[in-house]
Amino acid sequence: MAAPDELVEAYSTNDAYEAEVLRLALQDEGIPCEIDGEGQAGLPGLVALEVKVLVRAEDLERAQSLLNDRMRAKDANQEEEEAEGSEDEG
Q: What is the SS3 assignment for 34?
């Protein structure tokens, strides 16, 4: 088990922009976090490498809950936009 102040992975992506947005969202909720690997993700001509959003072990459960809520809302918005788009076509 990790020490309370040890940094652990809360989320990973190949999109450095997405990781930055999530970092800011967590910080807005009072959860300190860092990004690991962001410098590698945007190198032209290379396969995007994993970018990790890191939080303290003691904040992991809350961070993952907030990130899950954010992802569900994002998915719901995309589904709504797709439904509206198909209505406009018909």
A: strand
